[in-house]
Amino acid sequence: MDAAVAFSAPSPTPPRFSAGAYPCSRALHRLSVCGPRRGRPLRTRSQVQAPAAKATSHHDVVVVGAGIVGLAIARHLLVHTPLSVAVADAAVPCSGATGAGQGYIWMSHRTPGSDTWELALRSKRLWEELAAEVDGLGGGGARERLGWMRTGSLLVGRTSEELTTLEERTKALSQAGIHAELLSASSLHALEPAVSVGKDGGAMFLPQDCQIDAFQAVSLIEKTNNSYSPEGRYVEFYNDPAMSLIRSEVNGTVEAVQTSNHILYGTKAIVLASGAWTRSLLHDFLEPSSTLDIPVKPRKGHLLVLEKFDKVKLNHGLMEVGYVDHQVAKSNSVHMATESGQDEHGASSISMTATLDTKGNLVLGSSREFKGFSREVDKSIVKCIWDRAAEFFPALKNVRLDIDQNTQIRIGHRPYMPDGKPVIDFVPDLPNVLVATGHEGSGLTLALGTAEMVADMILGNHGKVDFSPFSVKHRFSVELSTLLQVQRSMPDDMLLDDFVKQTTGSVGRLLKFALEYRLEAFLQSDPAFIINSKS
To answer: Which residues, at least 6 apart from 101, have a Cβ–Cβ distance to it below 8 Å?
Structure first.
């Protein structure tokens, strides 16, 4: 998620490379094919401004993006390899998605055998190892320095159908080696007296799930990274947005990033870890003739933070079972019809999540909607989050919500991918350039596993987690001729929805997949983008 802001504060100006944010309108009915988006071309060394105008520095790896993923990549390279690293960002750490998250490191909402399962499992293990390491250093340990708490998580449901889902998930997680317990409504009440799920409800309990504080975790990682500065292995450039890439005149390899104030050479790799802004940033970097388009886009969310709230006491982190289906919202989440902010099915979606941080603040969520890079607080969504939480916490029904009193609203933009998994791979059109984005609401959870994977890719090592589910290849690009053929076969007077229903074969499957994920805007604005039929 993006930028935590107080409710009364004016909406800050988005970082420079959010300016390329693209529209995504449900009003589109026709499929049109036009030429590729012409981004800023890569430049060769001779085309760069004179050295006097830009400070130049040389590193093994340059990371663009100082969120939790980018900083974790830098940390892993510094701690586990002899490589030197530079990090550049248009803003400062925790001003983006990282600073607006809820901080849970949970397995309760994950599915064994899914493409992200092994990465989540590995990343959680790495967080636990880091917490144990910090505990061994004393000085308040992981709780004070990471906001680390092994609270356990409760996935709760209120109907017999949801209880059946919880039974199935408990069995699947247990078979995958996760300690999971199914709780009846009375057993849940014994653990969490403040929670009510009715006589037909229940919960799945994962006692080993944890949570962290994003600001404390980032602070710890920054301190680790900066400890390598005296030996010349680490440097950071904040409030210094990336502007373009520089390609070698000798072999065509991308060798540097040009920011507003610097030219940063990366001899081993340049890593783009810029979250929801990666698509527009990558467009600025690609050659005009490139057909690659990684369709990461901002998925806006609200979190409600009640400072030192004492009306509800929590012993564990909670999430309603409807959150599990957040990629395709189901009936057990609240839907709000809005004119401008809509999820894939035409509504803003609210699912109850509740955590208590180390400062005693109650954090309630969460909402999901596609509204570009808007940072405006929507009071109606905040009220829906409160009302949804009150369905699970009856004590809240007797409390009047005053969002201007001891309350903070976090507004964020999750880097959403249509197929529900991040992109971690080298970019085919850009030698030496690697992308790590699309983690949506799992950036904190997956950060350390992603960092390890990126380091292995740069070094050419076999990873502890399979790379292939996160690759670029066969995932985003098809030939332009295929799309032209589709356009020419579509009658002028036919709506896209009707055309898709009548189209069969691989093209039909491809279009149906695109329509299901509401990608008409991508199809209209960028002919190179379409999900490969093999997906």
So the answer is: 1, 214, 303, 412, 441, 443, 444
Burial grade of 236 (CB within 10 A; 0-12, 13-18, 19 or more) = buried
Which helix (H) or strand (E) is 437 found in, with range? strand 433-437
pLDDT in tens, 240-260: 999 999 998 888 889 999 999
Would strands 407-416 and 297-306 be described as parallel, antiparallel, or unpaired? antiparallel
CB 430 within 8 A of CB 292: no
Main-chain phi, psi angles of 94, to 5 degrees: 70, 10
Amino acid (one-letter) located at 146: L
- Max CA separation in the chain (angstroms): 73
> What one-letter code names the amino acid at 426?
F
pLDDT tens sequence across 116-141: 999 999 999 999 999 999 999 988 89
**CA nearest to 90, candidates 219, 3, 22, 214:** 3
Give the C-alpha separation, 283 to 525, whole Å: 13
**DSSP strand E in 8-118: where?**
43-44, 55-64, 85-88, 104-105
- Contact (CB, 8 A) for 195 and 157: no
**Three-state DSSP state, 267:** strand
Q: Is the pLDDT of residue 143 over 80?
A: yes
Residue 272 sits at φ, ψ, to 5 deg, of -100, 110
| Half-sphere CA count of 67, side-chain side, radius 13 A | 37
Q: What's the gap between Cα 415 and its chain centre?
A: 4
Contact between residue 286 and residue 39 where contact means Cβ atoms under 8 Å apart: yes
